[in-house]
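CHAIN AND CONFORMATION:
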Amino acid sequence: MDFGPYLFLAFLEGTVTAAVLALTAVGLSLVFGVMRIVNVAHGEFFMLGAVFAWWCTSLISGYPALGFLAALIVAPLLVGAIAMVSERLILKRLNYNPEGTIVATIALLYIIQQLALIGYGPDARPVEAPITFRIVFPWFGYAGYKLVVVAAAAALLLATWFVLTRTRLGLLMRATQYDRETALAFAIPVDRVYAIVFAVGAMLAAVAAVLIVPIQQAHYLMGNDPLLLSFIVVIIGGLGSIKGTVVAAIVIGMSDGIISVFMTPTLAKIIATLLVAMVLVWRPQGLFGQTAR
């Protein structure tokens, strides 16, 4: 294959990576922006989404589209419920202390990971894609499902933006984010908002996992890379900035996908980490973050 078609293939792969990464990172950014805590267990919620997707599709074997549709509904709901229970039992009792929640979510990471290993097993397991058509370009054929993933991720990101900017729930989230004490003074149920935000952040990660699992397979350790890349994206975009998160996800996802095609995935992670270091040196608040006053 000539360089031009090969670059186009890398561009397509980078687009898929960017779309899924944006969805995952927005969930992490939302939790930090509203609750002001770092959720180190975010990658494990991603992993749970993939595991539950495999479980749903295995229960409805023989009907890939129906099983996948069930997974797209059931997996995020289950992950959201687990996240909400974790928030009520752990984070709330710590009064959302930044240092304490980091330690608590690290512990939650290992608990979820080990429970998944016990219940799911150490093997990577495939999930059949709901559709299998191919798009034929002049140089090669490309899986149509991957472009469906991009479209679905874009639609979900738009839906998230709509909820945050055009609904009462979004208004409560933004009020809580700007000033917790003032929100309490206006009788906004801040604790309930925190629980919803933590669950929604986990659900976004789970949806991203359901979308990508027919391409990557489900594995109990698959949350590591999404967690790392999500942190990189959130730092570059600006902590708590949804717009910055999406822009940074496009940049990091595209570069990761393209470099992975031409070179190695490890080199892509190294370059992304160096980019974080440069941002922290020259613009510590991130590309779209605001300087603390």
The radius of gyration is 19 Å. The CA atoms of residues 100 and 256 lie 32 Å apart.
